[in-house]
Amino acid sequence: MTFKSYHTGVFIRIFLLIIVIGILMFAVLKTYYLLATASLVILILITYEFFRFLSRRFDIIKDFFESIKYRDFSRHYLEKNKSPDIQSLYQGFNTVNKVIREINSEKETQYLYLQKILELIDIGILAYNTKNGEVLWANEAFQNSLDFPSFKNISFVKSRNKEVNQLLFENFYSEANALEIPIKKETIKVLISNALFNVGEKSFKLIVLHNIEDTLNKTESEAWKKLLSVMTHEIMNSIAPISSLAGTLKFQAEMHQQNPKENSLDIEDLNAGLSSIEKRSEGLLKFAKTYRSLSKVTKIDKEQIQLSELFKNLQNLLKPGKEKNILLDFELKDSNLKVEADAYLLEQVLINLILNATEACENTPNPRVKVLAQKKFDGQVVISVTDNGPGIPEEIKDRIFVPFFTTKKEGSGIGLSLSKQIMTLHGGKIQVISKQNKGTLISLIFKENTVSTQR
């Protein structure tokens, strides 16, 4: 409607000009001087009014463009008592100014928000002009990492520490690089990376600096704590049955000394117990050495292990567990069944699994743990440990093999993870099947080429 009224106004004025010009020409040709004079005056007035009509609108548009040039979007154009076309222009200008003010407000909010985030993070960030060295922006973390006060130009760094200036501003790191930067009389370890970007015709360099000294110290400290916890847990798992078995043998020997007639000493039981203690002690030493460099182990000491002997040794070693009224049952489908494995490491795995199983079913009526070895139809030998405990909750099944993950207050979270690694070294695998309130079955599966049967 506004454009139509504007065009209509222009059309009417042009039409009037044509009519007046026609009358003026007619009056001149007919020598009607009075009519010609009147027509000329009217023509001048219409032309002047037409000029004002157009120039006023162009002045309004020019004024709006001038405010845009100087980024003045605060002005508000009054729309009342104006012609419809000017009213429409003012409405459009006000809408444009409002939208731009909103955009600027959003940008300013985002900038402040981003600035706050960058100030809060402990990673140093600095951007500067590559031509004149003027600092565009830098957060406190950057200054604190280098122990520098706030500076406006990187020339300050050069005057204060030339080596730091070369490392930070003269070298380019397209990928994160670990550096040692000298600060006063010390050096700090940092990760540094940078990138170039252009804003208009200006070129800037962005430097990201992460002080990893504290992180490395904290990580190292945590690693030591976990390592000590793990080693303590594994050693205690072996020492507990050794200590218990030694105590039982000592008690039997003392009773025999006090009253030999009523307390006969079974030499075979004594010899079997001492052999179990000796083997487990050797296994513990072997375990400690192997665990220390487990990640680098590429070869283990495999041998043909008679599973009946292994089960007999475990039964003697873990016999004191019966004090908890837990039935520990060993079953071997084939008494001649063998596997090719590292005897000490395999024994360590089974001790871990059996102890975990006994702990799991302690509060279960008629607690029962069964250790079974059998050969499957596909030639694989499976040693399984089954308990009738509460089972493993569904929400943690996927995490039980994650190192250091545990639900026990005093657990290390390494038992199953370490067992899995040991089975991997043997070319086998470990499998877990658990049902809520029904128990857990953990199977050690040995491939066919690692087993044999003696007939």
- Number of DSSP helical runs: 11
H/E element order: HHHEEHHHEEEHHEHEEHEEHEEE
Query: Judging from the principal axes of the Cα atoms, what is the shape?
Result: elongated
- In CATH, the topology of the largest domain is named Heat Shock Protein 90
Give the number of DSSP strands.
13
Organism: Salegentibacter salegens
GO molecular function, one term: protein histidine kinase activity
Catalytic activity: ATP + protein L-histidine = ADP + protein N-phospho-L-histidine
Keywords: ATP-binding, Kinase, Membrane, Nucleotide-binding, Transferase, Transmembrane, Transmembrane helix, Two-component regulatory system
Quick description:
Its EC number is 2.7.13.3. With 455 residues, the chain is an alpha+beta fold.
What does this protein look like?
The protein has 455 residues and is of the alpha+beta class. The protein has 3 domains: 2-105, no CATH class; 121-211, Beta-Lactamase (2-Layer Sandwich), CATH 3.30.450; 218-453, Heat Shock Protein 90 (2-Layer Sandwich). It is 52% helix and 20% strand. The chain has a 5-stranded antiparallel β-sheet. Strands 7-9-10-12-11 form a 5-stranded mixed β-sheet. The longest helix is centred in the middle third of the chain and has 46 residues, at 213-258. It catalyses: ATP + protein L-histidine = ADP + protein N-phospho-L-histidine. GO terms for molecular function: ATP binding; protein histidine kinase activity. The chain crosses the membrane at residues 7-26, 32-51.
